[in-house]
Write a structure and sequence with these properties.
The chain is α/β, with parallel strands linked by helices. The chain is built from 16 helices and 15 strands. Helices cover about 40% and strands about 15% of the residues. It has a seven-stranded mixed sheet, sandwiched between helices. Strands 3-4-5-15 form a four-stranded mixed sheet. Strands 1-2 form a two-stranded antiparallel ribbon. The longest helix has 24 residues. Pfam families: Aminotran_3. InterPro entries: Aminotrans_3, PyrdxlP-dep_Trfase, PyrdxlP-dep_Trfase_major, PyrdxlP-dep_Trfase_small.
C-alpha cells in the first residue's frame, strides 16, 4: 500500500531514520552510492526488508527494486538456494583458527566456473581485491605506476584510486602522481601512455566492458600491448562477473587477463569477493615462491564459511538455471518498454537507456541534451511515487513480466511530467527541493 499525495510519497519514518543515520554514521550510509543525497529531498526510503524483486521501507511502502544492493543481489533478496546454503553453514561455525574445508570447495567451484584463472583468493569487498591485484603487479614488475581506465567510475576505496577523484582529501600528492589514466577503447592513446612512462607502469586495470561493448579487437589489442610493454593486465569484473557470462567478460570475449577481480553478484548480497589469475603471479603471495613475499589478502573474515557457501550456491544457480540469459531477456524487455514509453511521451532523446541488457542504466538529459541532475531528480521522484526504486535499471532474475510492465507504466507517467518540464524549460516546480548530487564531489 502506498502512502502518497499528489507530490509523491510521504515518508515520515524514513525521514526520522535518515536523521538517526546521519547523527551516528558519516554520510548516513555505509556506501556513498546509497546516501540520501543520491535521492530527491525527503524521498530517500530507508529499507525494512526485501523479498525477491521487491523491498519495503520503514513506512510500509513496497517498491519494485532495480540495481539491488548496488548490483550485488542479482538473484533477488532471500533467494531460497542461497539462504539454505548459508543456513547450513551457520550451524557449523563461521570462522576457525585454521582453514575450513569449505575454502577449498569454494575455490574449486570458482575455478571451474572461471576456468581462465588458475588460482583464487577470497576477500570481503571489491576494493581489497583490486588493491591486491595492484600490489601483485607492482611486486612482479618492480614498477611504481598504476594505469587505470579513466572512463570507468570506480576501482577501489584505497589511495591509489581515490586520489584521482574529486574526493582526494587526506591522500598525499606523491601517491596521486603514481596513478595515470588511459581512455577506454583507444589502443593508440594507451600505447602512447606506456611509451611515455616506459618501464614504469606495473599494470593496466580496467572494466573489460562497460555500458558499451568493447570495440572489435580492443581487448585482444590491450592484451598484446601489456605483453609488449611488460605490464600486468587486470580486469575488474566486479560488475561484468556473472552478468556478462558465468565466467565474466573474459569468458564471453575470450581474452585472458593476468589477474581479475570479482564481487557483487558472486555472493548475492553476502560479503565475498575474489582475486583470481595466473599461478605465477598469485603464488607471489603464497608459500611456494622464492621471491620477496607479497602480503596478499590476509583478512580475518575473508573465508567466512557462510559467505563462501553463498558464493557456491550462486554459481550453481547461475549455471543450472541459465541466470545470465534470463537477466538479458528481462533487461531487453525493460529497455524496449522504457524506450517506447519515452518516445511516446516525446522525451525519447531525453530519457535514454544505455548498457548491456543485464546491466542497464539511464541518462536524464535537459532541453539541450546535456546530462542533468535536476531532470534526474524529477524522474526519480515520479518513479518513487509509482513504487519503483531505481537508481539504475539493473535487473535481478526474479523480476517477472508484471513487474516489468508496471515499471514501464510508471516510466510513462514520469516521462509525461518530464515533457511538461521540458516545455516549461524549467524542472524546478517538479523538484520540491534540492537536486540529487553526484557521488564524487569535493565539497558536501
Amino acid at each position: 500500500m502506498h502512502t502518497q499525495d499528489t507530490e509523491g510519497l510521504l515518508l515520515p519514518r524514513s525521514r526520522q531514520a535518515n536523521e538517526r543515520l546521519h547523527a551516528l554514521i558519516p554520510g548516513g550510509a555505509h556506501t556513498y552510492a546509497k546516501g540520501d543525497d543520491q535521492y530527491p529531498e525527503n524521498l530517500a526510503p530507508v529499507i525494512s526488508h526485501g523479498n525477491g524483486a521487491h523491498v519495503w521501507d520503514v513506512d510500509g511502502n513496497r517498491y519494485i527494486e532495480y540495481g539491488s544492493g548496488l548490483r550485488s543481489v542479482s538473484l533477488g533478496h532471500a533467494h531460497p538456494r542461497v539462504v539454505e546454503a548459508v543456513r547450513r553453514e551457520l550451524g557449523r561455525g563461521s570462522n576457525f583458527v585454521r582453514p575450513s574445508i569449505v575454502e577449498v570447495e569454494a575455490a574449486e567451484r570458482f575455478l571451474a566456473t572461471v576456468p581462465t584463472a588458475e588460482m583464487v583468493k577470497f576477500a570481503k569487498n571489491g576494493s581489497d581485491a583490486t588493491t591486491a591485484a595492484v600490489r601483485l603487479a607492482r611486486a612482479a614488475t618492480g614498477r611504481p605506476r598504476v594505469a587505470i581506465c579513466g572512463d570507468h567510475p570506480f576501482f577501489s576505496v584505497d589511495d591509489w584510486f581515490i586520489g584521482t577523484t574529486p574526493m582526494s582529501a587526506g591522500i598525499p600528492a606523491a601517491t596521486n602522481e603514481l596513478t595515470v589514466a588511459f581512455p577506454y577503447g583507444d589502443l593508440a592513446a594507451t600505447e602512447e601512455l606506456l611509451t611515455r612512462y616506459q618501464d614504469e607502469v606495473a599494470c593496466l586495470i580496467l572494466e573489460p566492458a562497460t555500458h558499451t561493448e568493447p570495440p572489435p579487437g580492443y581487448l585482444a589489442g590491450l592484451r598484446a600491448l601489456a605483453d609488449r610493454h611488460g605490464c600486468v593486465l587486470v580486469f575488474d569484473e566486479m560488475i561484468t562477473g556473472f552478468r556478462w557470462s558465468e565466467a565474466g567478460a573474459q569468458g564471453l570475449y575470450g581474452v585472458v587477463p593476468d589477474l581479475s577481480t570479482f564481487g557483487k553478484a558472486l555472493g548475492n548480497g553476502f560479503a565475498v569477493s575474489a582475486l583470481a589469475g595466473r599461478r605465477s603471479l598469485m603464488e607471489r603471495g603464497g608459500l611456494r615462491d622464492s621471491g620477496d613475499r607479497v602480503f596478499l589478502l590476509s583478512t580475518t573474515h575473508g573465508a567466512e564459511t557462510h559467505s563462501l557457501a553463498a558464493a557456491m550456491a550462486v554459481q550453481t544457480t547461475y549455471v543450472e538455471e541459465g541466470i545470465t540469459a534470463r537477466l538479458h531477456t528481462l533487461g531487453e524487455r525493460l529497455a524496449a518498454g522504457v524506450r517506447d514509453a519515452a518516445a511516446a511521451m516525446g522525451v525519447g532523446e531525453h530519457v535514454v537507456v544505455r548498457g548491456r541488457a543485464s546491466n542497464l542504466v539511464f541518462a536524464t538529459l535537459d532541453g539541450n541534451l546535456r546530462p542533468s541532475q535536476r531532470y534526474r531528480t524529477l524522474f526519480l521522484r515520479r518513479l518513487l511515487a509509482g513504487g519503483v526504486l531505481a537508481p539504475s535499471f539493473v535487473v535481478s532474475s526474479v523480476l517477472d513480466d508484471a513487474d516489468i510492465d508496471r515499471t514501464i507504466d510508471v516510466v510513462a507517467e514520469a516521462c509525461a511530467v518530464y515533457r511538461q518540464a521540458l516545455d516549461a524549460d524549467d524542472p524546478t516546480p517538479w523538484l520540491a527541493g534540492r537536486a540529487v548530487k553526484p557521488v564524487f564531489r569535493r565539497l558536501a
